[in-house]
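Hi, here's the filled form for the chain we discussed.

Project: internal
Contact: R.S.
Residues: 233
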Amino acid sequence: MNKQSNTYTVIYIILLVVVVGTAMALTALALKPSQKANADADKMKQILASIKITPEKADIIDAFNQYVTDQYVVDSKGQKVESAVKAFDVNVAEESKKDAADRLLPVYESTVDGAKKYIIPVYGAGLWGPIWGYVALNDDRNTVYGAYFSHQGETPGLGAEIAKPEFGAKFVDKQFFKDGEFKSIAVVKAGNKPLNGEDYIDGVSGGTITSKGVDSMLRNCMSAYQEFLKNKQ
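And the returned structure, exactly as it came back:
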């Protein structure tokens, strides 16, 4: 075949695309298990962070299995449900967009220093993208033991501050219920107070929209669990 012809050029390009595409597809398939394993380990690390456990990378799975003693799915009535999806695999981002009555609600139980904790995942929207986290409650299913938050693209030094341990630590000992009524925990501008008598923390300085996102995220996600949480009230 004439290597200077258009036909040769077209065939060469097609073969090159097929070979490169096949190689990329095979590489992606080969890496998929390790990518999922890394994502799962990172999720375990975040869940553990909410109960103030920070293992080394090599010890994450062992620590998760040690401290997370049970995990299950409940519905908006607070009842455990048989789901084809395990609690760990529930897509909280998608569930948070549904009506509360239609959500699959994962719960992680943990034992820390002999005391039971309930870990609830939360998901919402910040200024530039999604935000999420895990809130650990004491055995009363009301008082915060610890909290972890993260984000996809909030502004460094501003909204991104929600990912720092100091921000999550503000929630410790705050309560979601007052006199048996679900109130949530407000995130307000420093110097302000909420109007409904709920517990609150100061938001991130300069990160007003992200702070409001955390406030909305907690109200939306935690309110769906209120019947489950009331079982201990």
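Let me know if anything looks off before we file it.
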